[in-house]
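Duplicate of #3305? Posting structure anyway:
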């Protein structure tokens, strides 16, 4: 092919057809430029393809984070054993019961058990940590990149802050009552520890215990609210990620 073009060039020069030669030379340059542009386009396409593969892998890990976090949030909110809703209900029940003229009955012990505890929170972030170590710009869609960053920097931090408030309140206040005013027994049938008041009438007379329960009710209610918000946003963003990956 090169020899073919060389012969044409030489023929035009020997025939002294300068205008035709210049036109030919321009066409040859144009062909070279087109060839370079095509090569660059192919190279760019290959690079883009590799980026999409890496992006898909990174987002797959983040989807795994979301799946774990959704399961954890649903456990905290709806688990058949201890969950935040049951804790709040028991605290509310005990406040009303202790502020009334009701006498002690062992049926309320289950509420003391649910009220005098807190449920630990563990949210997964390894997928996002892996992404940030590689470079968050790996996510090509700017809006999606921003939403993911917002989720990990803010959305899941709010229930963590609320959880820390519950834990601090439990250890600074509620645990003292548990140690001083309750008896702990082991239920072999249920393979778990149970508590009951050491002296119900004395506990009932402690107004500071009821006030502590009220504060514990508020921090648990706030915690539940943040868990629900985070669950909704986790489900929504997970669906958005899955739709993005299938398109």
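Output from current build:
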């Amino acid at each position: 092919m090169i020899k073919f073009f060389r012969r044409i060039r030489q023929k035009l020069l020997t025939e002294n057809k300068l205008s035709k030669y210049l036109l030919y030379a321009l066409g040859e340059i144009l062909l070279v430029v087109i060839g370079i542009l095509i090569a660059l386009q192919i190279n760019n396409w290959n690079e883009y393809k590799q980026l999409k593969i890496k992006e898909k892998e990174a987002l797959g890990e983040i989807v795994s984070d979301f799946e774990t976090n959704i399961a954890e949030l649903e456990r905290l909110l709806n688990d058949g054993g201890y969950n935040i809703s049951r804790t709040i209900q028991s605290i509310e029940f005990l406040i009303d019961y202790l502020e009334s003229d009701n006498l002690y009955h062992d049926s309320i012990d289950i509420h003391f058990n649910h009220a005098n505890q807190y449920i630990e929170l563990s949210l997964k972030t390894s997928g996002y940590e892996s992404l940030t170590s590689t470079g968050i710009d790996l996510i090509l869609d700017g809006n999606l990149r921003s939403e993911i960053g917002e989720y990990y920097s803010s959305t899941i931090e709010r229930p963590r802050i609320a959880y820390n408030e519950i834990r601090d309140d439990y250890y600074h206040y509620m645990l003292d009552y548990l140690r001083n005013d309750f008896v702990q027994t082991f239920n072999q049938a249920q393979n778990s520890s149970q508590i009951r008041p050491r002296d119900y009438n004395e506990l009932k007379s402690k107004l500071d215990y009821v006030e502590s329960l009220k504060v514990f009710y508020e921090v648990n209610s706030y915690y539940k609210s943040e868990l629900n918000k985070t669950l909704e946003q986790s489900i929504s963003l997970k669906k958005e990620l899955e739709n993005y990956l299938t398109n």
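Confirmed duplicate; merging threads. The first helix runs from residue 2 to 14. The beta strands are 182-187, 192-197.
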